[in-house]
UniProtKB/TrEMBL annotation:
GO terms for cellular component: cytoplasm. This is Dihydroorotase-1. Its EC number is 3.5.2.3. The lineage of its organism: Bacteria, Pseudomonadati, Pseudomonadota, Alphaproteobacteria, Rhodobacterales. SUPFAM superfamilies: Composite domain of metallo-dependent hydrolases (SSF51338), Metallo-dependent hydrolases (SSF51556). One of its GO terms (molecular function) is dihydroorotase activity. GO terms for biological process: purine nucleobase catabolic process; pyrimidine nucleotide biosynthetic process. The keyword Transport does not apply. It comes from Rhodobacter capsulatus (strain ATCC BAA-309 / NBRC 16581 / SB1003). The keyword Hydrolase applies. Residues 49-234 form the Dihydroorotase catalytic domain. Coiled coil: none annotated. Pfam families: DHOase.
Length: 423
């Protein structure tokens, strides 16, 4: 089917432009952009002056299958993604069991077919994510693994990690790491400081992130592996990241929307929906992350979607599970940066769609002729109050429950097929 979008604010992150015009989709591909007439046989969608942008490519989404389907299934994650304007999910391997064999990877690849959005999978870097023996990276790549990571399990054995990096480099594989010093961060629930002391909570210094990143970057310099830091959250880590990029190392970095829009004081009186990994940081760190994203030091903005059931969250803060769902709230939360004047819309979608797609070698994330018609139509000015019980995710652990947000997804399209909305 041919689809004609008319009267749209076209957000092009690659060109860095925002223009009013029309867009034609034919055979699941963007066929034309500009001021043209609708083809005779096209389905016409009047965008009413609202924004049309590339669908979000969300790196680092946890889905409960296998082992924790009660927290999130491929179907519910796909529905939440479609409602949030996410058209491609890059799923994490921190499942039960971990995705560390071709057989497990093939299982989740088959299960992902029931989702209305595209899902690609990362595989574990070490067996069982235990940091003792690397996985069969070559076989996993043959089975469809798009990258390798142990998620928030930090490999403490530098020799094992260096061997994994060397092998990944020989195969051209991308490795994602969670930059933290495992000894300092073990058992921590919040960031160290006055707030942590007043609450009597176990804390970790922001230096733990810098120390972990310094080690990883030294190994990148030694091995030449393509490396992505999944979350940079402290100002102390930014100089090392900037130096690595300036030296031409194959390094990129991401940050979660929660660390860009919340700070340590949001924990309040032990509110466990705000317990994350890494923990929320100071307001100075948050502002430094916003600036780093705007300047391109940090490349990618993601949700770090981590579903947790009520039983694991309704516990004392120290014992509660870390993580928050974010597929459905990623765009409206990220639009806080736009409304604050920190980023324009093309810059925001560069971090949400274009840069993640480039990192993963995908054709998505672009608004140009010949690109896949994975699109999100949204109203950046529509206000609403979030009710977590209306979320499509099985788990409802969002820190934005009851928050006033501005920006609604009106419709989502994957390959030109509408998967959400009434457009």
């Amino acid at each position: 089917m041919t689809v004609f979008f008319e009267n749209a604010r076209l957000i092009d992150p690659e060109a860095g432009t925002e223009t009013v015009g029309n867009l034609v989709v034919d055979g699941g591909i963007i066929a034309a952009i500009g001021q043209m007439q609708a083809p005779a046989d096209a389905r016409v969608i009047d965008c009413g002056g609202k924004c049309l942008a590339p669908g979000i490519v969300d790196i680092g989404v946890k889905i409960g299958e296998p082992g924790e389907r009660h927290k999130e299934s491929f179907r519910t994650a796909g529905l939440a993604a479609a409602r949030g304007g996410v058209t491609t999910i890059i799923a994490r391997p921190d499942t039960s069991p971990a995705i560390d064999t071709p057989e497990t990877l093939e299982f989740v690849t088959r299960r992902a077919a029931e989702a209305p959005v595209r899902i690609r999978h990362m595989a574990a870097l070490t067996k069982g994510r235990a940091g003792r023996e690397m996985t069969e990276i070559g076989f996993l790549m043959d089975a469809g693994a798009i990258a390798f990571t142990d998620a928030d399990h930090v490999c403490a054995d530098t020799k094992v990690l260096s061997r994994a990096f060397t092998y990944a480099r020989s195969l051209g594989a991308l490795v994602l790491c969670h930059p933290q010093d495992p000894g300092l961060s073990k058992g921590a629930a919040v960031t160290s400081g006055k707030f942590a002391s007043l609450r009597g909570l176990p804390a970790v210094s922001p230096m733990a992130e810098r120390m972990g990143l310094d080690r990883d970057l030294a190994l990148v310099e030694m091995t030449g592996v393509r490396y992505h830091a999944d979350q940079i959250t402290t100002a102390r880590a930014l100089p090392a990241l900037s130096r690595a990029k300036a030296a031409g190392l194959p390094v990129t970095a991401g940050v979660s929307v929660h660390h860009l829009t919340l700070n340590e004081f949001d924990v309040g009186n032990y509110r466990t929906f705000f317990k994350l990994t890494p923990p929320l940081r100071s307001e100075d760190d948050r502002l430094a992350m916003v600036q780093a994203l705007a300047e391109g030091v940090i490349d990618i903005l993601c949700s770090m979607h981590t579903p947790a059931d009520e039983e694991s969250k309704r516990l004392p803060y120290e014992e509660a599970a870390a993580g928050a769902v974010g597929l459905e709230t990623l765009l409206p939360a990220a639009l806080r940066l736009y409304h604050a004047g920190s980023l324009d819309l093309p810059g925001l979608f560069r971090a949400l769609a274009l840069n993640p797609a480039r990192l993963m070698g995908l054709p998505q994330g672009r608004l140009c002729e010949g690109s896949p018609a994975d699109l999100v139509l949204f109203d950046p000015e529509a206000p609403f109050v979030l009710d977590r019980f209306t979320l499509a995710s099985k788990s409802k652990n969002t820190p934005f429950d009851g928050a006033r947000l501005t920006g609604k997804v009106l419709a989502t399209f994957v390959g030109g097929v509408q998967v959400h909305g009434q457009a």
